[in-house]
Amino acid sequence: MDHFEPDPRLVEDSYPITELPLCQLRLMNDSRFPWLLLIPRRHGVSEVFELSEAQQRQLWRETSRIGQAFKALMEADKLNVASLGNVVEQLHVHLVLRRTDDGLWPGPVWGQGEALPYDLDTLAAMRDRVLAMLEGLDLQPEESQAS
């Protein structure tokens, strides 16, 4: 596979955490909300249906398992899962944790207020927490589990 590059706007707005079987996992640089991005490492894909059926299942596997664990880790009230693509065409999935006291509840987070960037210590701590959370998750594709 060719070397994968996420859209420059996603790179500018987020920090890399790790590579998953299908996606690159990134942390959005907005400390107001615990917010992860999953970016399938496939060139020229802007819609979920452009992935193969196996890749679609893997995207949902990574999205749902990480979302569930992230919600529990951060003790959030709600997990918002979205793939909009109106500004950045490259397929990516947002996992945004919400709390009923987060200031924007129950409205959307997009285009609301100014992002509050992480300081380096908090960023490192959040990255470490997410990496530790991933250690217990089975994110391997179903096909590889059968062997």
UniProtKB/TrEMBL annotation:
Domain HIT: 36-105
One MF annotation (Gene Ontology) recorded for this entry: catalytic activity
Gene3D superfamilies: HIT-like
Organism superkingdom: Bacteria
Protein's name according to its UniProt entry: HIT domain-containing protein
Native source species: Halomonas icarae
